[in-house]
User: Fold this.
Amino acid sequence: MMTNNIFANFSPTDYRYRVADLEQYLSEEACIRYQVLVETALIKMLAKNTICSKKCVNEIEKIVNKIQTKKVYEEKERIGHGIRALVNVIKDEAKDSKPYIHMGATSADIIDTADILRFKDATEKVIIPDILKLEKELIRIAELEKNTIQIGRTHGQHATPVTFGFAIALYVDRLGNRILNIKETCNKLVGMFSGAVGAYNALSLYIKNPDKFETLLLKELGLKPAHISTQVIPPEPITDFVNSIISSFGVLANLADDMRHLQRTEISEVKEPFSNVQVGSSTMPQKQNPEVLESIKSLWKAMMPRMITTYADQISEHQRDLTNSASERYVPEILVTFDHSVRRMTKVMKGLTINRDRMKQNFEMSADKVIAEPLQILLSYYKHPNAHEKVRQLVMKSIKNNASFKDLISQDNEIKSYFNKFTKEQKEISLNPEKYLGLAPQKAKEICNLWKRKFGFKI
Amino acid sequence: MMTNNIFANFSPTDYRYRVADLEQYLSEEACIRYQVLVETALIKMLAKNTICSKKCVNEIEKIVNKIQTKKVYEEKERIGHGIRALVNVIKDEAKDSKPYIHMGATSADIIDTADILRFKDATEKVIIPDILKLEKELIRIAELEKNTIQIGRTHGQHATPVTFGFAIALYVDRLGNRILNIKETCNKLVGMFSGAVGAYNALSLYIKNPDKFETLLLKELGLKPAHISTQVIPPEPITDFVNSIISSFGVLANLADDMRHLQRTEISEVKEPFSNVQVGSSTMPQKQNPEVLESIKSLWKAMMPRMITTYADQISEHQRDLTNSASERYVPEILVTFDHSVRRMTKVMKGLTINRDRMKQNFEMSADKVIAEPLQILLSYYKHPNAHEKVRQLVMKSIKNNASFKDLISQDNEIKSYFNKFTKEQKEISLNPEKYLGLAPQKAKEICNLWKRKFGFKI
Amino acid sequence: MMTNNIFANFSPTDYRYRVADLEQYLSEEACIRYQVLVETALIKMLAKNTICSKKCVNEIEKIVNKIQTKKVYEEKERIGHGIRALVNVIKDEAKDSKPYIHMGATSADIIDTADILRFKDATEKVIIPDILKLEKELIRIAELEKNTIQIGRTHGQHATPVTFGFAIALYVDRLGNRILNIKETCNKLVGMFSGAVGAYNALSLYIKNPDKFETLLLKELGLKPAHISTQVIPPEPITDFVNSIISSFGVLANLADDMRHLQRTEISEVKEPFSNVQVGSSTMPQKQNPEVLESIKSLWKAMMPRMITTYADQISEHQRDLTNSASERYVPEILVTFDHSVRRMTKVMKGLTINRDRMKQNFEMSADKVIAEPLQILLSYYKHPNAHEKVRQLVMKSIKNNASFKDLISQDNEIKSYFNKFTKEQKEISLNPEKYLGLAPQKAKEICNLWKRKFGFKI
Amino acid sequence: MMTNNIFANFSPTDYRYRVADLEQYLSEEACIRYQVLVETALIKMLAKNTICSKKCVNEIEKIVNKIQTKKVYEEKERIGHGIRALVNVIKDEAKDSKPYIHMGATSADIIDTADILRFKDATEKVIIPDILKLEKELIRIAELEKNTIQIGRTHGQHATPVTFGFAIALYVDRLGNRILNIKETCNKLVGMFSGAVGAYNALSLYIKNPDKFETLLLKELGLKPAHISTQVIPPEPITDFVNSIISSFGVLANLADDMRHLQRTEISEVKEPFSNVQVGSSTMPQKQNPEVLESIKSLWKAMMPRMITTYADQISEHQRDLTNSASERYVPEILVTFDHSVRRMTKVMKGLTINRDRMKQNFEMSADKVIAEPLQILLSYYKHPNAHEKVRQLVMKSIKNNASFKDLISQDNEIKSYFNKFTKEQKEISLNPEKYLGLAPQKAKEICNLWKRKFGFKI
Assistant:
């Protein structure tokens, strides 16, 4: 079981959606390495408290660099306990520090704290930088296309115009909001070093202030302690963290859906990048599919339901049961596939073909009817008592008879009487729907500025 | 379909788990009332901007008090549109304000803002006060029982001792943390008044600064606006809010599980209140079941998966599709059943019978073996190179032979040589496991003080 | 709490998505009525076994017609037990049968069996007939439109042609398959009458063959018994039944998505029925939205995740815990909203406007490129070693240069040399993409016939 | 990215819960091999139809044995299409068969059919045999312990007695039922060979009866075709199959919960096997935890929510979108971890320590109160009008006063008057609760026989 090639794997996270940069945090090898880090911090603290000598620190630091995951697993195979196996493997190499390895700790002190550490590192060092790159790309597009007219679509039906930059600015904002949420929930992740049942029973045997000892040990690792814990850290900070990732994935999935719908043959307003040698279909040579966007949506479908596991893992009997152990080992899959999707989305947005002409043409399809809204608003403004119904009947007539709505308006005396009261600007908007943009361009700009400021982007 | 008795209902939320206090926020009647509130705020703003007269404000305020949900639904039946139906019903009664009702708004401006408002009100006025009552109850128990010894249980197996107050303090902390989370996510809920596609197209026709208009209108209602929106508010604030409720429900479910397991016949450390006339089983007269606790866990199972719906509702095509409309109508069910569960949990904790004698007896079952941990720690402390394995073999022997572990220790020369080095206090703890409590009592106290301070409790 | 109007309800199932025809099976009132039915069956069996007199049967039959849900709930309020409350209410009216009411039964015998019965009745008497109506409607369209050319779409991109009837026939088949699945899983629902822990302890006190007694009692109700049970029926038959409903809902959701995407302004191949007075938007008078289709998708999003609850309810400690009790009370919501959606979908399909001209036009958009597939296949057939790549390069050139693919082909000597080998029919299809329909019309017909036969439809 | 060790993996399925026997079906390498199998079947069918020569069959059979997954992935990297990459790699080695590779197929014909094949093979060749081993083990225990008295537990409270064999027989039945369900749903999995949009467009170019061609091709592979398909197979057969696996996992999870609760220190009726060198806790040497049982429950929590993905994958736009592609790649994880759990559960049950003495002792705890049920039943039988309430008051008094219930009964004149009417056997059961077993032993035996017969077990 110790040799392998990635194609002997079962999980697509391991053969297809790998993010090499995350291996050092989220692989099983990394997991063991982080656990070693926590065990080392314990020895350092014991030395600081003169419980063991400083030589022990040197010794342990040499040993831990040589720990092989394979060996730990072999020992685990023998004694059926993962952390004890790790401790034994370290002890085998130790001399002076032998008695002190893991002294006063329970397995979960090591496992939970190591997991928190590596989740934080993966998030801060890889995932957030990756999302920020996507955010920048979105800002670039939103600014560039802030004046590009596009028909707004609600219920899949043409509505009132926006600009493409405005539409993208929405994602700038939603993604920006999620980045902040990931940062916040990540900062609230806490560690623990409180022993078998959380009451510092063991540490109390030889340390005066075991809770202070915990605080300093965790500080060494860059973490704060939970207020109180059982054998394990209270689960809610992890719950919030996973929620922040899953809900960020949802923003990606929505963007992916929007972009691939805009790529529908009949709409054709954007196009996912497609290389010269790329094949779209094994049988239809003409096909160019939004397959990256589809893949992002699909991975969201695979990962999103796993929030249920996270909620179920909130429940642990008394000072803990172990039914959250195997399940929590799947959290890295969520982080990896999310980051993989962020990276692919960034590439798609970077290479996105934006067809402004087609956006204009699609808008033109509905230009005649679009003015129904400004018309009914202005009729109301000039005190028409039932403007919506008046205009609705007229526009429905135009749809039914396939007639120009503008013409019908111009022939309607009642409307004419109101129209005459319109200001010059109001008249112009009513007759030129492409001017009926509201604050779309301005808002696009403002949102980009807001998030550039928040993230210190200089673009 | 307009007359009803609650037992003609399909959803248990409506016949069994109702919280009458929440009807004014979360029933359909309340929903319409909040929508009316938003429509009224619009008229007020129009008057402030001298677009309509102040008379309109008076008029609308009189009308809206008389709106009947039934009438709105009848009009909806006719025209197939909920908000337009509401507008028509208001208009029917209006004179001066007729043209201005709903002017510049899209349905979602009203619906989404009204929902945010009523969710906030329900949370701030009923749900949070209810959880605070539960929190107080937990604090009361944690303080009272901070010195009550209880065997710690991990994997369902006796571990190292804690106190019952310490065990409850864990829930004081987790619930306290969730209350803060609900408050935070609730405060981040934002409103919207940006029109059909979010670009203020309609408002721009007659207002200079439509985004400022939005801000002031929402301020009137006690809300802040979204940075940017489509036809609907960006979904993530709602996502986080629902996560805060669902994860709070998880804390309740865990507490319920713990309490009912402690009520198992063989454990019998606590008992759910049980009245004199109460029947536990329709066939076994002797039964006294933890049925309220079971019901809380069961409602958690019913509500928790609905987070999936919330995540799915993050995805809406382009400027919105309507596939989040029916699904979001089920959010009130989550809030109601959660609050119902909080209230029932408070009653259970208030009336909880705590059997200190039984806690002591259960602890005694394992007292002999419990000292294995302090022993191996202290052996390590005094430089035994393989203390855990040494003690493990001895304690397993004692288990296998059903012999006293203390006796085995006292007969073991190797251990004796170490034992002699122990301090007086260390010796005492090793021999008197009921003293092996670590910081349990102290932590229980500290956690209670922490949250009493945070919530300003004077108890 | 005993008076109500439907708008005081919290769940939209109760104020908005009600199916009146299902009240007699799935409301709480119906629930009590079915429980009474099971209690009555017990008395009948006791009389048949001469344990009580036949007078008791008459007596009970008179009583049960008068049972008021309200009274049962009042008694439940007092004694805290639902079934015992029901028993007490019946007993209050009884004389001779007083001792025999509920004798030998446990609450779950009554509750579980009653639930199975009413779920079966609701399914067989309302839900399946409703789906069959939808199935008929789909068959009607599939047959009518079996020759209507439509461009096939994969990845949202034009692919190879089908017919609209063929596309609908797919749903005829999927829905047909689900109807059979619902029937099968419904038929496998079993009842139970085995007492407090499933071992017939109580019945054994006065009946020789208590398992035979159970079988006959259930036969009276039209059910078969579980092979073995605890206090409750083994959960898997219910699991499979709910899966059959949820997966049927998925077919509806997919059909709804397809139809609403075909209604997109740019595609416009179909249109949901829209009445003359109907309002599509409260601000944009021109809007005609696929709101029923959206609502169906949305209800699917609300109900689908509840399968998680069903899976969680598979787990019950030892002879049962009660944590599946509150949660299972929400199953009727699933059934009601599913049936509601089936009915609305039937109306949409009945009134669907099908725009054959637009289907033709949309097909024409891609007619030139569509022949890439038949061309590469036939080149292969005539031994071209790399037909796909050859054609791919040519068609990509045509896309890039916005040139006619047909023209490029006719100018390509290599292709010409193969083309000359084509049969007449092969040439015709290659040049007339509208003939490249494969078996689409034939399959549409066959599938319709298959399911008409299976369901005995005469249409 | 092409070299690896299993500890560089992210998913625990790949480093910790691997089932080596499933690699040949469910790894990515296996996936490619099965796809090759389908491509080969196509060439065979073309040869049978004399479209290509028999030499092609020989040629392809030689080639496919040498296909390297690595090469396919490298080509995929270049052209961005998985199946086309595979086709290219095969073609590179081919001469005569070059034109015919993949001719008339679309990628999904290959992918979907290959997946169905390998899921079936994995299920039939590994998973079902593994579950049958567990079933046998459960039958062994149920038969052996059919007379071992155990207190029945409902709501975690002592109820009415059963036997341990009876309790296990429940799982024999539930698991047996699931095995049948897995077999059924597995048999209903169908393949497909109908081209780009499901209408056999391509095949029709050179084959008379393309649907017959599909049927024969699939027969060659041991499959039946879908009635009709789009580009992909209708999803419902897979939905039902995954439901059968997930719901089987639920049965395992329930059994795991039951066994670990019975292992609670205070109950101690069973014990998971524990080796001599095994370590239960890294700090508490005395611990022996039910960690395998906990792990099974935990994996259920990780996998069960993935049903949501399966339901979401039912929805695919028009002739298909690709958003089910990445997500479906995670189905093997479900199968692997389920099989892993089945195997571990079998080991646990095989080595389970059953403590009959402790079962008896636990039963004795409640023996005095247990007779409350038979007493109230028999009082009713002898026409006491309110037996339950009469007995309830008496037994509550005994609980409150910590007095013997038997004594209270014997002192109660009213009860005495009824008791005198009891038959000898009825008296005996009332006074000797260990005889109040109902049909428990008999049912245990019957259920075992039923499933031994169904599965042809000779044990």
User: Anything to note?
Assistant: The longest strand of chain B covers residues 157-163. Chain B touches chain D through 49 residues (CB under 8 Å). Chain B has a mean pLDDT of 96. The longest helix of chain B spans residues 107-144.
